[in-house]
Specification:
Layout (H helix, E strand, L loop, with lengths): L1 H16 L3 E8 L5 E10 L13 E7 L2 E12 L6 E4 L20 E6 L5 E7 L8 E5 L7 E3 L12 E3 L5 E4 L2 H5 L2 H4 L14 H9 L15 E4 L4 E5 L2
Length: 238
């Protein structure tokens, strides 16, 4: 009897509070293989462990409430039995990141998903730099898209560029990651919007990707909202 009551109570709570899963469909439009990854900030841990060939897609069910980030690695290999990537690597040695985050620079898609009849928040962040173009398209209709559709690596300033073994640019660091100074990281005496305005470096990213976060206090033009219950299409190299 106690088990039946607990089951009915769980159903009632789910009905009242709108417990649901959000589906992230991740698509690879890049001309090479990528390895998507997730990092859970709060909520049920969501693990990814797959590669996507060009034009392939895969879906992840994400129980709400949840907050975290999605990114993609490329230039990956399993040489010597340890999986590693030239861009966006998480250092796990496996296709699964197992709770580890991206090594900057990496283009991050950030979500805060609500579990009730409320609001989801999402953004594309270049605060740690850039490695791949990406777009986020809500699938329920009526909600704004956000993206960074430009290959910033192609025009990255030399002092921010990350090269692979063949000399190709595989990432573009933010000024904070590259120089670790308070005026770029919005830390220390520069930890407010008033004392940490945009810099020439953050403006470089913003000019190429106007909807994406270019530095820590770039909220007004970079955070987007959608009604809870939507699914999201995340496309790399849109």
């Amino acid at each position: 009897m106690e088990i039946q009551l607990l089951f009915l109570l769980t159903l009632a709570i789910s009905f009242i509070y709108g417990v649901h899963s959000t589906v992230f469909t991740i698509k690879n439009n890049c001309p090479y293989t990528i390895a998507p990854a997730t990092l859970t900030g709060s909520g049920t841990s969501v693990s990814t462990g797959f590669e996507l060939q060009p034009q392939a897609s895969n879906s992840i069910n994400t129980p709400a409430p949840w907050s975290g980030r999605v990114w993609a690695r490329f230039g990956c290999s399993n040489d010597g039995g340890s999986y590693s990537c030239s861009s966006g690597d998480c250092g796990s040695g496996q296709v699964e990141c197992n709770g580890a985050g991206a090594s900057p620079p990496a283009t991050l898609v950030e979500f805060t998903l609500s579990d009730a009849s409320s609001t989801d928040f999402y953004d594309v962040s270049l605060v740690d730099g850039f490695n791949l173009p990406v777009s986020v398209v809500p699938q329920g209709g009526g909600c704004p898209t956000t993206d960074c559709p430009v290959d910033i690596n192609a025009s990255c300033p030399s002092e921010l560029a990350v090269k692979d073994g063949s000399g190709g640019t595989v990432g573009c660091k933010s000024a904070c990651v590259a120089f670790n100074k308070p005026e770029y990281c919005c830390s220390g005496d520069h930890n407010t919007p008033e004392t940490c305005p945009p810099t020439n470096y953050s403006q470089f990213f913003k000019n190429l990707c106007p909807k994406a976060y270019s530095y820590a206090y770039d909220d007004k033009t970079s955070t987007f909202t959608c009604h809870t219950g939507n699914d999201y299409l995340i496309t790399f190299c849109p």
